[in-house]
Design goal:
By secondary structure, the protein is an alpha+beta fold. It has one domain. It has two helices and eleven strands; from the N terminus they run H-E-E-E-E-E-E-E-E-E-E-E-H. A hairpin with a 4-residue loop joins strand 9 and strand 10 (133-139). The model is unreliable at 8-18 (pLDDT under 50). This is VPLPA-CTERM sorting domain-containing protein. Residues 150-174 form the Ice-binding protein C-terminal domain.
């Protein structure tokens, strides 16, 4: 009986620790109006990953609980500086996050600017010192869809493996004594 109580306590502690850890999510937005072409592109996607930590344990997330936000190989997270910034971030699970992020890089040869404002637009601008340039804007529309999924943390796989091994050992023990 004592072993069962101790096992239950260990599992409860592991579950509480896992719940309190930062969690990563991936959002895929699909279907945008191409402002530069005036055409709706149903297969145009925007992938965004973000990591949050519910520091105040209220079940929703604000800018100060955002640990990372990445899209199109650009890390917008961290403190705002001259290159990248997340200006706004709010999210309550069960809804989609609202955020505004920007990236600007001028290295003397090239100028790159990207921005995302959820529900409005995402933009990509590039100008090289050799004259090459592109300027694209995609607007959100009522037809834009979004899918959000949790990204399992490596520790979650470890806890799953330990749990399955424990269940297997318990089953073998019962068969041996049964």
């Amino acid at each position: 009986m004592l072993k069962k109580l101790m096992s239950a306590a260990v599992l409860a502690a592991a579950a509480a620790t896992a719940h309190a850890a930062p969690q990563s999510y991936e959002i895929t937005y699909r279907g945008f109006q191409a402002v530069h072409d005036g055409v709706f592109e149903p297969d145009r996607t925007l992938h965004v990953t973000f990591t949050v930590d519910d520091l105040d344990h209220n079940g929703s997330y604000s800018l100060d609980e955002l640990l990372a936000l990445d899209s199109n190989r650009i890390a917008y997270s961290g403190s705002c500086n001259i290159i990248h910034c997340v200006d706004i971030f709010t999210w309550t699970p069960g809804a989609l996050p609202t955020f505004s992020a920007r990236y600007i890089n001028n290295n003397g040869f090239d100028f790159t600017m990207q921005s995302i404002v959820t529900g409005e637009s995402h933009k990509s601008f590039y100008q090289s010192s050799f004259g090459f340039r592109y300027d694209y804007t995609w607007d959100w529309t009522p037809a834009t869809t979004a899918t959000i999924t949790a990204v399992p943390e490596p520790a979650s796989f470890g806890m799953l493996a330990v749990g399955l091994a424990g269940m297997l050992a318990l089953g073998r023990r019962r068969r041996a004594h049964g």
